[in-house]
């Protein structure tokens, strides 16, 4: 049985009468890691809100349909830009919160393995206030990876991490999310070039699908094709921002 599903988004969005993005036609392929780049304010995060049914403040004129025709509800895990950790819970309990809220038996072994992979084992009994911003972001990532949903939405999941940790977390996430349908909002062309099996660029003029580097993800940081893609993405981003 397939563990992933593609999504087709077609339409435009506005907030309080102000156009957010023009009509777009976007197909997120099943089982692939799709990256979405673009300048601030064009609606990248709003697309994640729409997919996760959190966009009550947005007027969306269009359709969002899973390729298999089934509802998306209950099939999505979402990591926001802010960590949204519960301050009164330990790091381990924050990681397990989804299972506890659903009344499932907490998979403590899996959570501890994941926290170990994220370099957080020694902090499992700590509370969020005892952690740095980067560590808190890793906990939020752990909580998202624990969900094992078919569709995973990531809003700048590695932005608070230093370069070495960011590269490590990219590789760990790709390993844990293999075969899932991932839509990843990022401002980092290098990240998109390394992870993207599809790369989309959203700007005020609309949605553009970019050519991706050769090779399977996670691509080496010094791969010539990956570096060339990174440079091309940065060039285009500077043009649309100007």
Could you provide a short overview of the structure?
This protein has 242 residues and is an alpha/beta fold. It has helices at residues 44-51, 91-95, 97-102, 108-117, 133-146, 163-176, 189-195, 224-241, and strands at residues 7-15, 18-28, 33-37, 59-66, 76-79, 151-155, 181-185, 198-203, 206-210.
Description:
- By secondary structure, this protein is of the alpha/beta class.
- The protein has a domain at 1-75 and 180-242: P-loop containing nucleotide triphosphate hydrolases (Rossmann fold, 3-Layer(aba) Sandwich).
- 34% of the residues lie in helices and 24% in strands.
- The protein is built from 8 helices and 9 strands.
- Strands 5-6-7-3-8-9 form a 6-stranded mixed β-sheet, with helices on both faces. A 3-stranded antiparallel β-sheet has the order 2-1-4, with no helix packed on it.
- Strand 6 (151-155), helix 6 (163-176) and strand 7 (181-185) form a beta-alpha-beta unit.
- The longest helix is centred in the last third of the chain and has 18 residues, at 224-241.
- It is globular and about 50 Å long.
- It starts with 6 loop residues before the first strand and ends with a helix.
- The mean pLDDT is 92.
Low-confidence stretches: none
β content, as a range?
15-25%
CATH topology of the domain at 1-75 and 180-242: Rossmann fold
Extended strand count: 9
Provide the helix percentage. Answer: 25-40%
Helices and strands: which structural class? alpha/beta
SSE arrangement:
Blueprint: E1 7-15, E2 18-28, E3 33-37, H1 44-51, E4 59-66, E5 76-79, H2 91-95, H3 97-102, H4 108-117, H5 133-146, E6 151-155, H6 163-176, E7 181-185, H7 189-195, E8 198-203, E9 206-210, H8 224-241
Parallel strand pairs: 3-7, 3-8, 5-6, 6-7
Antiparallel strand pairs: 1-2, 1-4, 8-9
Helix pairs in contact: 4-5, 7-8
